[in-house]
Design brief:
Blueprint: H1 3-12, H2 16-33, H3 36-45, H4 49-56, H5 65-73, H6 78-88, H7 93-111, H8 113-121
Helix pairs in contact: 1-2, 1-7, 2-3, 2-4, 2-6, 3-7, 3-8, 5-6, 7-8
């Protein structure tokens, strides 16, 4: 288990396998939605992050139940769709927010504030969760 997964699991109080999947889903979402250059630099900078994205990037895509389907049909989704996917994995809103904050804290340590701020600013609605 890598440092990112360990820190998030411990900080948020999640089982390591749940944290690993949730981080991979979140980073995969950022890879699809955020500024391409900044998110690529951020993911590459965090040890183990590229592997998590590769493993879990497709997890939950197209899911989200009725609400996720409605949001997708209106061209939306974004952060809320990711939240629905993480809730489907058993996480509550408090855990999702803590997961996002701790993941971004680790990202700042490895990729720097400027890169992470660019990623956050490029995804509508993300700043309220991190």
């Amino acid at each position: 288990m890598n440092e990112l997964v360990s820190r998030v699991a411990d900080s948020v109080g999640l089982a390591p396998d749940v944290a690993e999947k949730a981080i991979g889903m979140m980073l995969g979402f950022l890879q699809r939605e955020a500024d391409d250059g900044a998110v690529a630099r951020m993911i590459e900078a965090i040890p183990g992050a590229p592997e998590l994205v590769a493993q879990f990037n497709g997890e939950g895509s197209g899911g989200g139940g009725l609400l996720g389907g409605l949001m997708a049909s209106f061209g939306g989704g974004g952060v809320m769709a990711l939240g629905q996917q993480l809730m489907a994995q058993g996480l509550g809103m408090g855990e999702i927010t803590a997961l996002a904050k701790e993941t971004m804290a680790v990202a700042r340590e490895y990729a720097g504030d400027e890169v992470v701020d660019t990623v956050i600013a490029s995804v509508p609605g993300l700043s309220q969760f991190v």
